[in-house]
Design goal:
With 552 residues, the chain is an alpha+beta fold. It has four domains: 43 residues, no CATH class; 246 residues, GROEL, domain 1, CATH 1.10.560; 107 residues, GROEL, domain 2; 149 residues, GroEL, CATH 3.50.7.10. It has 17 helices and 23 strands. Strands 11, 12, 13, 14, 15, 16 and 17 form a seven-stranded mixed sheet that branches. A hairpin with a 6-residue loop joins strand 20 and strand 21. The longest helix has 24 residues. The radius of gyration is 30 Å and the shape is elongated.
Length: 552
């Protein structure tokens, strides 16, 4: 640590930072940052793979989260250290870009920094390490692309294997087959072709969580599930061959824009005024009915009187439907969201084979089922307890991300540590052709890649050294598909075992992990302005040295 004094002029100390500022420089700063990042990486490493363990996270008010999902763990941990926060960013980036592989990305970033720490101790400059890491990362991505295999949206069996690989290790273990089928069906349903490419917006797969039943009760609705109930008891609870009006306007009597007062001197005038309001509401119900609609979803309110008239017309209605749900309904049913009731015509109506109100758990919900080729669908996620529902939901979210990435890029690689082992082998060969100290950094990158198969072996209760030796031998013999057999020990062909992952998960994990490691390695000075507490106590780390500019 050094204090707020930097330099001296004629024996007089020059104070340029406020009192109480802590400053860490050089090797100490690098070691601290590497240690913090490594601690984050170690926290999630035990969750990797199908035999990975779960974490229980308890917050200040006693709420708990039980999960195996890397990004969820890191977000819930409320990390304070600035370098450790950068590791959380790695997980978030991976989650946003691909939707899966967050643990892999963080574990690789931590191992890259650990190996860089060993090189720093040998007095190799961070810039040299960064240059070597960049060369290694580019070469690693070339290797991954070379060993990848093609996949298309028609290859349902392979897509199912991708979903199963993504969900392995998560809760809902016994029903993964059922969940994987749902995920593949959902993603295939919302996929769209644009300019000859398949594009998938994962937001079009809506997930609705409801406690109760078990994970096998999770179902795919080829349409939309609305967490609302039918507004009036006199309305039908089930409508077949539904013609659906989507209205973003209130079925209520408009308030005046200004603070106007209506003075009524004659009781008859009051009656006329009430009748006029009623007539206006009746007209609104007539407009909905005359368009041919027998189901109405309204983004705003529906007046009690309007509800009565809609019920008399046999129209099923739900009000205050969320904007996102209205957009999803438009995509699913083919209808248009209308902002003015006067514009509503039969051409604006959407279609569903069935709209029904059902009780799920202790709440009524409206199901819009069996739409014609819907471009938005819903998955109703069920589970015995709140924590199970949450974890099944996270498993489904990861699987949706994986399957979508595989379809969009159209390439897959074997899982189980096979691609990392192949990259490691290729990088060692590649480093032999390099001159200078970058060769050491490329070798360090190659060693770091083996953290994935090593972690898989450790989490499966296997001997990591024996497993790595077997893997290296297999890959030297050109068996690129061999990975860790976490169930029976040893190695096995991952493609035959159906353990496959999208290429994008691996390439994105490598890119974001390398960039984060490089950024942390560039830091050689950490200045933190620690404020004095209100009682006038000392800043963290004790009283600042008020003497010269020496270290203390």
């Amino acid at each position: 640590m050094v204090n707020a004094t930097i330099g001296q002029l004629g024996g007089q100390p020059i104070l340029i930072l406020p009192e109480g500022t802590l400053r860490t420089r050089g090797k100490t700063a690098q070691e601290n940052n590497i240690a913090a990042a490594k601690a984050v990486s170690d926290a999630v490493r035990t969750t990797l793979g199908p035999k990975g363990m779960d974490k229980m996270l308890v917050d200040s008010i006693g709420d708990i989260v039980i999960t195996n999902d890397g990004v969820t763990i890191l977000e819930e941990m409320q990390i304070e250290h600035p370098a450790a926060k950068m590791m959380v960013e790695v997980a978030k980036t991976q989650n946003e870009e691909v939707g899966d592989g967050t643990t892999t990305a963080v574990v690789i970033a931590g191992e890259l920094l650990k190996r860089a720490g060993d090189l720093l101790e040998q007095d190799i400059h961070p810039t040299v390490i960064i240059r070597g890491y960049n060369l290694a990362m580019k070469r690693a991505i070339e290797v991954l692309e070379k060993i990848s295999k093609p996949v298309t949206i028609e290859d349902k069996e392979t897509l199912k294997k991708i979903a199963l690989t993504s969900m392995s290790g998560k809760s809902g273990y016994g029903n993964m087959e059922h969940l994987a089928n749902l995920v593949v069906d959902a993603v295939m349903q919302v996929a769209e072709k644009k300019n000859g490419k398949v594009v998938i917006d994962t937001d079009n797969v809506k997930r609705e969580k409801k406690q109760g039943g078990s994970s096998e009760n999770t179902e795919l609705i080829k349409g939309i599930l609305i967490d609302k109930e039918v507004v009036h008891p006199g309305m039908p609870k089930e409508v077949k061959d539904a013609k659906i009006a989507l209205v973003d306007a209130a079925l209520e009597v408009k308030e005046t824009e200004t603070d106007a007062q209506i003075r009524i001197t004659d009781p008859m005038k009051l009656q006329e005024f009430i009748e006029q309001e009623e007539k206006s509401l009746k007209n609104m119900a007539e407009k909905v009915s005359s368009s041919g609609a027998n189901v109405l979803f309204c983004q705003k309110g529906i007046d009690d009187t309007a509800q009565h008239y809609l019920a008399k017309k046999g129209i099923l209605a739900a009000r205050r439907v969320k904007k996102s749900d209205m957009e999803a309904l438009a995509k699913a049913t083919g209808g248009k969201v209308i902002t003015n009731l006067d514009d509503l015509s039969k051409d604006d109506l959407g279609y569903a084979k069935l709209v029904e109100e059902q009780k799920v758990g202790d709440e009524q919900m409206v199901f819009v089922r069996d739409c014609k080729n819907p471009k938005a669908v819903s998955i109703l996620v069920r589970g015995g307890t709140e924590h199970v529902v949450d974890e099944v939901d996270r498993a489904i979210e990861d699987a949706i991300g994986s399957v979508s990435s595989a379809i969009e890029i159209g390439r897959i690689v074997p899982g189980g540590g096979a691609p990392e082992s192949e990259v490691s082998r290729e990088l060692r060969k590649y480093s032999e052709g390099l001159k200078g100290r970058e060769q050491l950094a490329v070798n360090a990158f190659a060693d770091a890649m083996e953290v994935i198969p090593r972690s898989l072996a450790e989490n499966g209760g296997l001997d990591p050294i024996d497993t790595l030796v077997s893997l290296r031998a297999d890959h030297e013999n050109k068996k690129q598909e061999m990975g860790v057999n976490v169930f029976d020990g040893g190695t096995m062909d991952m493609l035959k075992a159906g353990v496959v992952e999208p290429l994008k998960i691996k390439t994105q994990a490598l890119k974001s992990a390398t960039e984060a490691a490089e950024m942390i390695l560039r830091i050689d000075d950490v200045i933190s302005a620690s404020k004095l507490d209100k009682s006038g106590g000392m800043p963290p780390g004790g009283m600042p040295n008020m003497g010269g500019g020496e270290d203390y």
